[in-house]
Amino acid sequence: MTKTAGGVAGSVAPGFELVRSTFAEVMESHAPGGGAAFAAMVDGRLVVDLWGGETNAGGRPWQEDTVAVLFSGTKGVVATALLTLVDEGRLLLTDRVAEHWPAFAAAGKADITVAQMGAHAAGLPYLAQPASASEVADLVTASELLALQAPVTPAGAPTYHAVTYGWLMDGLIRHICHVSAATLVAERVAQPLGLDLRIGLQGDRDAEGRLAELFPAPEFAPSALAADDPDPRLEWVYPRFWENTVSADWLQAPNPAANGIATARAMATLYGSLVGGSLISMRTLEEGTTAAAEGADVLTGRPLRFGPTGYELSGTPSRLGPADDAFGHTGAGGSSHGGWPSLRTGFSFVTSDLRLEMRDDRAPRLLDGLYAALRRG
């Protein structure tokens, strides 16, 4: 591995120098106080491990062990944990959700399958009834409220479940395993692989001390809300998005849709382990990366393509790189995490410098460089 320089720390393996130079270019535009990291694993070997910038307004340098908020990259982590249950035969993706979670059958949802719910096609992108802040903050209560609700968009048609994905997956996992989604991630993914990864800080003072402070650009917003004439229902899909995100309470309590916290190295290792067959079987991975719902989002018109537990798949605007078999999940602000099975590669870009999607080319540039290095090799 070759040590890097010029304001960028970390290392790359021979043949991946283009990724280092691209990362250096990307970091030249970072916002004061913000930073980023990029990592890639190929054939079980960490070939890229880079970081740069700062973690707070005081100019504290980004370190090797700095962790960042994954935002919706968390969904890919939960999708992986759910696949471990499939791999063990404890869950079939063709199962009706109500077979495991009887209350979910309410209001015409008896035939919705696990695959449909995981692929954002359950028709439950927001909570239709009024609920207090304490009710939606409690995962058990929030999932129970959602289980009783009728679909608000057509079941079977993909509609991005930005927040409710976490409530739904947590409810399903609790009814199968009697533990939360965050606990399942810890027990089935983070601990076995030795990953610096968790959902919510949950009082972890060490991780809290290493967490990069968020620096949103002035115009920052989820891409759906940044459209010229967004559907008014999107305000329910993304309730009080930013004011909740910056709160200490939001970072502490687990949110299986949005507040995973990890290093880029941990996320690249997760996806590298998946494509290498060391976490689940390749047969289960293939099942989990086959489209279960695809088409235009009912509320935004954006092309969507999801696997049956929640991975974003190639063939949409999601920024998972050039590989045709790419899967994983991007996150608000610019992060991207995923795998390329045909190239036996896992990758992750994390950042605290949050930018509007249409004005951010950092992850695409890095993934283009990684892809080019792999193809040359």
Describe this structure in words.
The protein has 377 residues and is an alpha+beta fold. It has a single domain (9-377), classed as DD-peptidase/beta-lactamase superfamily (Beta-lactamase). 35% of the residues lie in helices and 16% in strands. Strands 1-2-4-3-14-13-12-11 form an 8-stranded antiparallel beta sheet, sandwiched between helices. Strands 5-8-6 form a 3-stranded antiparallel beta sheet. Helix 1 packs antiparallel against helix 15 (362-376), helix 2 crosses helix 8 (181-193) and helix 6 packs across helix 7. The longest helix has 16 residues, at 73-88. The chain is globular, with a radius of gyration of 19 Å.
Gist of the model:
With 377 residues, this protein is of the alpha+beta class. It is built from 15 helices and 15 strands.
List the helices and strands and how they pair.
Elements: E1 2-3, E2 8-12, H1 17-27, E3 35-42, E4 45-53, E5 68-69, H2 73-88, H3 97-100, H4 114-118, H5 133-137, H6 139-147, H7 164-177, H8 181-193, E6 197-199, H9 205-210, E7 215-216, H10 234-237, H11 241-245, H12 248-252, E8 260-262, H13 264-276, H14 282-288, E9 293-296, E10 303-306, E11 312-313, E12 327-330, E13 336-340, E14 345-351, E15 353-354, H15 362-376
Parallel strand pairs: 7-15
Antiparallel strand pairs: 1-2, 2-4, 3-4, 3-14, 5-8, 6-8, 9-10, 11-12, 12-13, 13-14
Helix pairs in contact: 1-15, 2-8, 6-7
